[in-house]
Design brief:
The chain has one helix and 14 strands, in the order E-E-E-E-E-E-E-E-E-E-E-E-E-E-H. By secondary structure, the chain is mostly beta strands. The strands form three sheets. The chain has a six-stranded antiparallel beta sheet with strand order 3-14-5-10-11-12. The protein has a six-stranded antiparallel beta sheet with strand order 4-13-6-7-8-9, with no helix packed on it. Strands 1-2 form a two-stranded antiparallel ribbon. It is globular and about 35 Å long.
Amino acid sequence: MSNTIEINGTGGIIEGILGTANVNVNLDAPYIFDGSNDMFTVADHNDFDLSATLTLSAWIKPTGTGATWQMIATKNGVSGDADRPYAMWYRSSDNRIYLYLGDDSGSSALGTDSNAVVVNAWNHVAVTFDNSSNTGKIYVNGVLVKTGTSLTTSPYNSTKSFSIGAINDNDGGTASDMFVGNIVDLKVFSDVLTDAEVQEISSKI
């Protein structure tokens, strides 16, 4: 990853240097997800085809209420874990973070220990995957808390949307497994961020 964060979209370009203060995250203006059909979706695009390497990161403030399994962000499929190429989950029953990978026929998963995140408080979470070594990693507040080296499922390139805060199976428009709480500053990278890079992003508040 270079020193520049760049987000391209129909609304323009937002960029800044990681080592400066102009990309700090404003936690006072988060998106609110109440668990009642709330989600953001982005139409399928080649930029979301992340079969070799990936990093997802976000600030989350879960309430610990609602569904047991709550989606933070995912590339959607038709239905089921195997059909979703990659996903970052929050599990409210024990406050774990999970990375799931799907290849359209099977799935692999990696999860943190219990109480990895704190309810009603801001937590920075990130997951990475490197297909060349079957390695997934999960970070909480800039600290590497879980590593798995047997994630043998390589994400396939689905033609469905990318969503935040819920699943949008088969792009049907109906949210499921909805996140309850706040999410802000979700980032998607096509490479594997290093420990230092994840720590840098988690410090920008």
